[in-house]
Amino acid sequence: MLRKRSYFKSKGLAYLLVLPQIIITATFFYWPAIRGIVSSFMRSDPFGLKSTFIWFDNYINLFKDPLYLKSIVITLIFSGSVALLSISCGLFLASMANRALRFTALTRTLLIWPYAVAPAISGILWLFLLHPSYGVVAIWLNRVFGLNWNPLLSSRDAMLMVVLASSWKNISYNFVFFLAGLQAIPKSLIEAAAMDGASPFRRFWSITFPLLSPTMFFVTVMTIIFSFFESFGVIHAVTQGGPGGSTNILVYKVYQDGFIGLNLGSSSAQSVVLMLLIVFITILQFKFVERKVQYTG
Amino acid sequence: MSFKRISLILTLVFVFSFIESAFAKPIEIHWWHAMRGSRGEVVQKIVDDFNKSQSDYKVIATYKGEYDEVLNAAIAAVRAGKQPHIIQVFEVGTQTMMMSGMVYPVYKLMDDYGYKIDWSRYLQPVLSYYVNEDNKLMSMPFNSSTPVMYYNVDMFKKAGIGRLSKEKPITWDELGEITEKIAKLGVKGGLVTAWQSWTQIENYSAIHDLPFATKANGYEGLDVQLTINNDKVVNHIARLKKWMDDGNRFFYGGQKYQGPKSEFIAQNAGVYIDSISAIAKLQSSVKDFEWDIAPLPVESWMAEPQNSIIGGASLWVFKGKKKNEYKGVAAFMKYLANTDVQILWHKETGYFPITLDAYEKLKSEGYYEKYPYQEVGIKQLTRRNPTKSSRGIRLGYFVQIRNIINEELELVWNGKKTAKEALDSAVERSNIKLSEFAKTYK
């Protein structure tokens, strides 16, 4: 009978080896998270000299504020649109790139490139395209179609602009995973289907897509999380939450109230709500979406 | 190790420590500021000059980011017990700093270290923003500005409008006629304004002697409420909205100050309201047209308009440092108020000189005859003694309140709310913040 042979004679060494990782996680994740939760129950001055424990007042004030509820809706619309746009475009580009024979390396590099651009920079780039006064595309839209594109005033235009700017970055990220997923699909399956006379669309829908579902699931979860948190830089550079708070997504509100407004209690409460919301959405995804995922191998 | 070697090392250590004490290092004084680009260079020049002028102290000026980032860095530093000696805080952070319990008041610092300063030789409307309830100066004003009206002289000529007076403000009705004429030229819009809360509500209220908030704009207590939903301010905002809808006489250039400024530079607007400190940028970037400055317009019913209020930042000294370091801080503060330093600062940046000595010297040198537009802000600021409504605004969570006002005004501009609805809701939302702030310090 085979005996499990452990390399470590004592448990002590094993613990010692994982200790650095535990310390890092505890210092940079658990400790701040606990501090955040604690301070969400406090009312304190910016310098932290005076703090009073106020139970759930910060949370109650938050949910009494109609604008906060509006901000939740805005966040859901925003991240839903970013997910839809960046996943569909990423998948489309990946399946095209998977078929491309010439200039493969170049095409792929170019497609991955946007991901390397910092969110704030990508925001500025989009501003140069879509700003009503100096945006190249905006001016052209106005001149050719007479379209009055104005994200400085119109909530809809502003939302569209930040969705575009955030998706643009995410498309590359999704593209990488979809491409890897597509290349892992055995060619023989598709060839067999082709010989049976299945159309390209049918081949994609019945073979590629189901085999790609684990990737799809992973990418969806990641994109939702990204759009909740990483889009901060884009919002900050492009609209700063405006006009009239119409692009003020939750994470930007946390920053505005906490770091600029120095209202730490409310800001902490908002981050706790944000954390709970993302946990809830992730659980939902694992519970309902993952059932449809087929893991092979 | 041999005895010889040890004795050699000991000798060297002794010699070096002797040298060290003979050439004692100057005491370091740390100053965190938010002045970037050309302003940052001027700051560095002033600091270098101070360091060269004596050998006891060495001021180290560090750019820590935008105003809010400097304040955040300082708060984190205070919490870690490693605060700098001096920090530059924007005017909206004044209440936060005053209530922080971490401040060594400037008037006390100067008294404690033997600097007899005649505060009456300073520009009063600037000082009055930073005094406590006993009229004692809490922080040293550094960069102060006030909003003025810039206009495109060439565009005015084309529309048949002459130059405006640099002392007597035009009325808002006259500005209405001007913007109408300019809009007819086919430009994108007549008027554009930066920092809308600061220029169109805070300063509008001050100039027309209307309270911005109760308790003398917050100077006399923490249980404060905003009062900006009064008829006069509502009418003003409604009028701007009417100008916007009616022939592009006013347009919104965005929240950030770069937006409106670039609209003016691109000649999309004939009239542009912004801080006097925009001069530096206009001087360097406007090549293809002539611009000039006039005081902010006033209502026709306001026969004797009040002074405008300032923006910008002041220097705060933190508690918890050594006595000999504070001596250096006091010396540096005194140096900053020197006439020559103030003149340099004013000429290079457009910000006000804070002392009357500097202002009078510039006048006697004929500086303002050569650059008359540089004087418009000072004249507007000092045209009358500040009243309770025009000496400044002292509110907690003021940054958030400005954000709220910004948001609500945007809802007026895009037609979702009327001026009255927006200002009512701005007041209501701000009052919640103000009462939270008051509770924090109970």
Features:
A: 297 residues, mainly alpha, two-stranded antiparallel sheet, 72% helix, B: 442 residues, five-stranded mixed β-sheet, four-stranded mixed β-sheet, 9 strands, 12% strand
Structure characterization notes:
The complex is a heterodimer of chains A (297) and B (442). Chain A has 297 residues and is an all-alpha fold. Chain A has twelve helices and two strands. In chain A, strand 1 and strand 2 form a beta hairpin. The mean pLDDT of chain A is 88. Helices cover 49% and strands 12% of the residues of chain B. Chain B contains 20 helices and nine strands. In chain B, the strands form two sheets. Chain B has a five-stranded mixed beta sheet with strand order 2-1-3-9-4. In chain B, strands 6-7-5-8 form a four-stranded mixed beta sheet. In chain B, helix 2 packs antiparallel against helix 15, helix 15 crosses helix 16 and helix 19 runs antiparallel to helix 20. The longest helix of chain B is centred in the last third of the chain and has 22 residues. At the A-B interface, helix 11 of A face helix 3, helix 12, helix 19 and helix 20 of B.
Q: In terms of structural class, how would the helical and strand content of chain A be classed?
A: mainly alpha
Order of helices and strands of chain A: HEEHHHHHHHHHHH
Unreliable sequence segments of chain B: none
| Main beta sheet strand tally, sense and closure of chain A | 2 strands, antiparallel
- The arrangement of helices and strands of chain B along the chain is HEHEHEHHHEEHHEHHHHEHEEHHHHHHH
Give the helix level of chain B as a range of percent: 40-55%
Kindly provide the radius of gyration of chain B, computed on alpha-carbon positions and rounded to a whole number of angstroms: 24 Å
